[in-house]
Amino acid sequence: MNRYLTVPCEEKVIKELRSGDYVYITGTIYTARDAAHKRMYEALDQSEKLPFDVKDNMIYYMGPSPAREGRPIGSAGPTTASRMDKYTPSLLEIGLKGMIGKGKRSDAVKQAIIRNKAVYFAAVGGAGALLSKSIIKSEIIAYEDLGTEAIRKLEVKDFPVIVVIDTEGNDLYESAVEMYKEN
């Protein structure tokens, strides 16, 4: 099913999404990869404020290439999500509602997704140039010293993703394999 989602978004909207849904996201999302997640995790551990309010927001696991002239960002393909699994449950516990990446997630992340009524989306790996066309604006808001791993605030319009893990823990990677086995 095709769905359109405006972010930030509340739990009731996220709960309507189902594994396998195609979703087009419009609004504000944030980028963060390994190094930025480590810093945010350390900030939480020290009871420090994060660079942005994660409540009802989404993080896109992505480090862009340099922007071409006239564009807000370069190629913007997803990073393998499992690299953030160590840090993800803590962010979900404080209100993060969605993550965008590629690849499978750990059981601990799945359980945190269910517990916190969040969702994990996949963006198509290898389609970074195409994905960047849905990014209207890009601005570094924290950890500039990390280069491509700095946290960015992105304004997106109809950013295409697929629900992989929904709020009930249904996992597209698992269900798709089972469907394939049946045929």
From TrEMBL:
Highest taxon, organism lineage: Bacteria
Keywords: Lyase
Pfam families: Fumerase_C
Domain Fe-S hydro-lyase tartrate dehydratase beta-type catalytic stretches: 10-175
GO molecular function: hydro-lyase activity
Family annotation (InterPro entries): Fe-S_hydro-lyase_TtdB-typ_cat (IPR004647), Fe-S_hydroAse_TtdB_cat_sf (IPR036660)
UniProt family annotation: Belongs to the class-I fumarase family.
Name of the protein this chain belongs to: Fe-S-containing hydro-lyase
Species of the source: Parablautia muri
